C-alpha cells in the first residue's frame, strides 16, 4: 500500500506540476488481477481499485500498515463498480454489482472478495475506506435507488445529476460519504462555483472519459489555485482546505468520497467565483 502524507497549504503553494501530481494525483487504480491501494493521511482515507479479470481479488494489505488483524477490523469500505458486471463476496454472502452499483461493507467484515462475471468485460471496483468505530450493516444500492438531484444549467456548462449512495439519508456509515456525479452531454464543469469543507477531506475519481480526453482538476486554497490534468479512471486527493472542481475536454462521470467530522453532504463553504485567484 502506498502512503501519502497530509499537506499544509503554505507548502503546497510552492509545488511544481510534478510534485503536485506526486502528492495528490492517483494515476493507476485498475491493474488486472491486482489490488491498488493508496492510504492518504488526509483523514486516513484509503483510495483504491480492484480489477479482477482471470482471478478473484481479496481485500488485503500488509497488516502492520494498519496495525490490525484484518483489513476492516477498524475500517469501513465503499465499493462502486465502474466496469462490467461483477460481484463482491463479504464473509460468504455474494452481492452482484452491475456497472455503477455501490456496496457498503461495514466494520468487522473479515473477508471481502472481488469478482468479475466475464473476463471479456471485467468489473472495476473503485474503493474508498475510512476508519470506523461503529459497525453498520453491509448494504448495496444502485443509481435507481440512490437519492438523486439535478444541478447546474446548460448556460453554465454544468448540467449534471448528483447521486448520493452512502450518506445521512442513504446507506448508513460511521464517517464515509460517497456518491457519483454524471455530467450531461455538452457539459464540462463540475463544482463551479467551488467550495471547501474544512470539516472533511474528499477524493474524486473521474471516469467515462475517452482515452484522449482530460479533466483539468482545480485544487488549492481559493486564492491560490492550481490544476492537475487527470485522465480516465484516475483519482485525486483533495485536502479539507482545498477547492475541488474541474473542467473536462468533454463530459464525464466522477465518484466523490469524503471522510471527516460530519456526514452532512450540504456542509460546504461556498467560494464565490469572483474570489478565485
Ligand atoms: O462535497 C461534495 C462534493 O464536492 C461533490 O458532491 C460535488 C459534486 O459532485 C458536484 O458539484 O458535481
Ligand atoms: Zn466537496
Automatic annotation (TrEMBL):
Catalysed reaction, written as an equation: 5-dehydro-4-deoxy-D-glucuronate = 3-deoxy-D-glycero-2,5-hexodiulosonate
Pfam family, one: KduI
UniProt xrefs under SUPFAM superfamilies: RmlC-like cupins
Protein's GO biological process: D-galacturonate catabolic process; D-glucuronate catabolic process; pectin catabolic process
Pathway it works in: Glycan metabolism; pectin degradation; 2-dehydro-3-deoxy-D-gluconate from pectin: step 4/5
Keyword Repressor: no
Cofactor binding summary note: Binds 1 zinc ion per subunit.
Binding site for Zn(2+): 195, 197, 202, 244
Keywords attached to this entry: Isomerase, Metal-binding, Zinc
Family to which this protein belongs: Belongs to the KduI family.
Summary of the function given for this chain in its UniProt record: Catalyzes the isomerization of 5-dehydro-4-deoxy-D-glucuronate to 3-deoxy-D-glycero-2,5-hexodiulosonate.
Protein name, as recorded: 4-deoxy-L-threo-5-hexosulose-uronate ketol-isomerase
